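Notes from the 1:1 (GR / supervisor)

We went over the backlog. Supervisor wanted to see one worked example end to end before approving the batch request, so GR pasted a single chain during the call. The sequence is below; no edits were made to it. Supervisor asked that the structure be written out right there so they could see what the output format looks like.
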Amino acid sequence: MIKNRKLLTGIMCVLMVTAGLLLLAGTINDYEGDSDVVTENELNNEAFDKDKVLKEIEETDNKILVVDEIIGDRYVKYWEHSVDGISVKNDQILLHTDLETGEIVHYERCWTDVGSISGPQSESFKPENYYWKQAVVFPEEEDCTHFYTFEDSQEYPLTCWEVRYEDGTTVMYDFGGNEIGHGIPAPADGFSLSGYNNATWPDPWLPNRQNADSYFTNWCSSTTSLSMPSAATISSYVSDPNYKYFYELAHGGSYSFGADSTSSYYSKPSLGPNNVQDDMASRRRMKLAFIGSCEGLDDSGPGSFSYEFRKGHMEGTVTIGFDGMGSCPRWSKELHWQEYMFDKMDD
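Structure output shown during the call:
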């Protein structure tokens, strides 16, 4: 945790250590299986029949529904391929339908016939300090893409353990517990927002947010920067594990800040359904969270933004923010201070 009144030197040292992004990514490939990627333009030209698409999905075996929710103006469903508890790398089905019309606006399907595969003989393999582990199969060597590297030559299909550790590294083990390779980290994403002020000046912090996004663009594979998003929209980005860099500048404190209107807040659980504790529950901690509300770092205990974004950790994560800015007469200097801080981080 770092407050505005602290020396910037400490920020730089910690951030230089934690700036490495360790997020394993996958890509969509088609080798021995079926693959359809339908663009919105193709669908507008009736390239695919809706009943045919839904029938194809229904008849696909060994699929697990992992996303089933409304995102913006779309109803999104996403399935992964799992055979006897073993995840098939790069296999997936993605379906977007229009919320009002029910028509399909996007469809992707990649499915490999892996046949019969053998899983681990027991669950006795328990590495230390790991975040999660799963049994996976790579049908072909090409399925490793650019995100995995293996020692020596391997036979495919390759079944093994994929283990994500608390420090973000990914290691591959054979079912005997021997290390055979590792995952190569991919860049993370950044999310920044400015909250609602009043009807005469709804977004006075636009330059500050744009400044943060300009640096996030240097550090991240992609960024999203929004003016006065709803609490539900904020929640959707915070809960997304791809977003490791967070910035907010809005009216608020250590437990809530303003979203898209006077009475709309992103907060802790007791203050509303869209809350930081629930959103951070199933993901790893933020690498960097800037909590720019006046009293954003007035408190850093359990339930506070600082604590929840860090998930209580003090390593591999940084929260930066303000304490007592509500009574500070120098708000006009905030952007200059912020620019200086980000510039030093970027060195």
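Supervisor's comment: The radius of gyration is 23 Å.
Batch request approved.
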